[in-house]
Amino acid sequence: xxxxxxxxxxxxxxxxxxxxxxxxxxxxxxxxxxxxxxxxxxxxxxxxxxxxxxxxxxxxxxxxxxxxxxxxxxxxxxxxxxxxxxxxxxxxxxxxxxxxxxxxxxxxxxxxxxxxxxxxxxxxxxxxxxxxxxxxxxxxxxxxxxxxxxxxxxxxxxxxxxxxxxxxxxxxxxxxxxxxxxxxxxxxxxxxxxxxxxxxxxxxxxxxxx
Length: 210
Fold this sequence. Notes:
The chain is an alpha+beta fold. 25% of the residues lie in helices and 22% in strands. It has one domain (9-203). It contains five helices and 13 strands. The strands form five sheets. The protein has a three-stranded antiparallel sheet. Strands 8-4-13 form a three-stranded antiparallel sheet. Strand 1 (9-10) and strand 2 (14-18) form a beta hairpin. The radius of gyration is 19 Å and the shape is globular.
């Protein structure tokens, strides 16, 4: 570990992390928990306090989407709570890949997608051939703490880092949704000091009551 320390996301089996070591063009790695936990300098595990909110979203690196009559894009969704979603988001970014940056700013690894639309057709035409819209997955740039930050920020639709076709599942408490949006906004704020230690300490705090 360097002077600032190091953090990653545990997915139940492995630590997903931005290492910055050797090949900076492919910084996201998975490390077995047994190897990570054996480090003598390991900080205590942090399990951020969350709320009981479930989201539906595309859980794939490349998403097949479906345009609805109102223009919304939906998918065959994965449905999970916030902790599982943070781990899934981290793993998706690992599958897509990312480069390392020494800066406290970052760019997102984003899912690819494909869908067909009739919205580009002439409204006065008697027939229309659907247009295929698609984008490849996009690699991002991270260092360890910004990778962990964005994985957690993606668990709120209010953060700007949500996953593809993400929406809050039915019958969720709107007050909790707003509280969690406030929490992720606090964590991801560019005005906050970003070092592994600062981010690690902030993960331990509850800020939605402020």
